[in-house]
Model the fold of this input.
Amino acid sequence: MAQFELKIITSNRVFYAGSCHCLILPATDGERAVMAHHENAILAVCPGEMRLQCEENGPWTAAVLGQGFCEVANNRVTLLSDTVERPEEIDRVRAQEAYERARERLRQKQNVREYHLSQAALARALSRLREVDKRL
Amino acid sequence: MAGLKEIQNRIRSIQDTKKITNAMYLISSTKLKKARRDLEATEPYFYTLQGALERILRHLPDMEHEFLENPNRGKKTVALLVITADRGMAGGYNHNVLRMAEKRIQEEKQKGRRCRLFVVGQVGRQYFAARRIPIEECFRYSAQNPTFNRARWITETLLVEFQAGGIDELCVFYTRMINGMRSEAAVKQILPVCRFEMKEPDDVMHENFEILPDAQEALSAIIPNYTAGFLYGALVESFCSEQNARMEAMQAATDNANELLRDLGVLYNRARQAAITQEITEVSSGARAQKRSREEERRL
Done:
């Protein structure tokens, strides 16, 4: 049962540090899985759902990722993201509000940077909502 | 010797000031605790991020990217992001950063480049306004409570400008904590990302990295993220240094007030004693004079 060292670091805490069997990440061009002895790589990660299996045939843990990137080197994986949350940490009401706010803002006329920010906020809110709804 | 009343007035005013400085000391010490906690929480991210980016740049193939240093792109405009506090009374904290930024502005002017100022915090805004140095944009209410959203907002503003060609270089002026007690003003160039500046250690094995989906797109995703992360770290560190500086300044002010109060207390007591002694002398000499005049009357 091959495993690799995984470290997930967010802007305000170390989310996970330990061994891992399989890690599935939302990349900019679809999902990507990382397993032990993956070749050295650098992945850009976009907002979405991340899944993590600590042991072979073990339970999967899900989390919601923000913008970030992942570095695979010598069987060690470092995932850096501005936000990582477990589904149970997500406040559905807050995510819904953020979603509506972002939609409303997108409907109005905006300059480029406001548009980018609203779009990013919308992506975050959507991935949170999707994750929460899956648990219900 | 000053009059009794005057000394008393001074003592009272110093006592009032001391109450204020002491309160500010207590406030900033509680804020410092929170800021330290934030700083500790963000430190692993901050340092891993920097390390990771360095590593990526080392393994990057020769390529051109809008965020990377490009000798063909002239440097006409330099953006300075200056992080200051919202309030003064923090010793040299604001002053150090501002002086550094101003010096840089002079240097850039001599090189014939234009400077655009982006300021965080009230003090910086007022400082540059007083010197009639135009400010491009100030990010208000962001020095007090640094959050990742604020960092994102600032990053977005600057990146859009950078991509549109409005700025060619971005430097951040902030205050770095050296350890728990000491901090110093620091400057860091964020954009364009300079890949030759980083010295390559000789003993590092050259591994090959596959960059997915491809190097262009990965950099486009990673560098904004790196910028936001760096800015967040800089904001948190500056806030922590600010509270630290204010705490120290207020501690010194309170100590000073205590010393002044002690000296003035001695002075006051001496003046009071002198006044009493004088009064007694007057009374007793008056009484003696009376006594003498009464005796003379009896003799006559």
